[in-house]
Write a structure and sequence with these properties.
Immunoglobulin-like; 5-stranded antiparallel beta sheet
Length: about 170
């Protein structure tokens, strides 16, 4: 009897997780996801001066699968292996390195209603770092939804990356 109640509770939890794991109704087909990446002048400084850092931006569709791949793989690994799992699509950035003091802007267009749930950045500064930003239409420091454009501003510091305006992590 106790086992049946536990299994029933687990099914209720699992069904709730399935509902919450669906795509974001906030992102619809044709929406533009615009990311501005701002590197500090002290970027990736491990004691021998600031250095450029590798990064990759992603439009995430399956957050759990995506996150399980690990920050280093998501930054340096093969894009097609991630995309083949339908976990995310890489932004076209024109390069995967950012220099100290540089600014970069990249835009990705949503191809399907509700598929994209997060924007993510994977970097090596110098350790692997992964930041995932939910696209939930709840405006906050570094994230604004303006008509059909989701605008995200990220600041990369000496050894971290954060939404612009998040003073606890800049």
């Amino acid at each position: 009897m106790k086992l049946r109640a536990t299994v029933g509770s687990l099914l209720v939890l699992a069904s709730g997780m399935t509902v919450s794991a669906c795509g974001s109704p906030c992102v619809t087909k044709g929406d533009q996801i615009s990311v501005e990446l701002i590197a500090s002048k002290n970027l990736n400084n491990t004691g021998s001066g600031a250095q450029q850092a590798p990064f990759r931006l992603w439009a995430v569709t399956k957050a759990g699968v995506f996150k399980s791949l690990g920050a280093e793989q998501l930054c340096r690994g093969k894009v097609d292996l991630v995309e083949a799992q339908n976990a995310a699509k890489a932004f076209a950035t024109g390069g995967n390195w950012i220099a100290p003091g540089a600014k970069l802007k990249a835009v990705h267009e949503a191809e399907v209603d509700g598929a994209i749930t997060h924007v993510a950045i994977a970097m090596m500064i110098p350790q692997a770092v992964l930041l995932m930003i939910p696209l939930d239409c709840n405006e906050r420091d570094g994230y604004v939804k303006d008509d059909n454009t989701h605008k995200i501003r990220l600041v990369v510091g000496k050894k971290n990356v954060a939404l612009a305006g998040d003073k606890s992590k800049e």
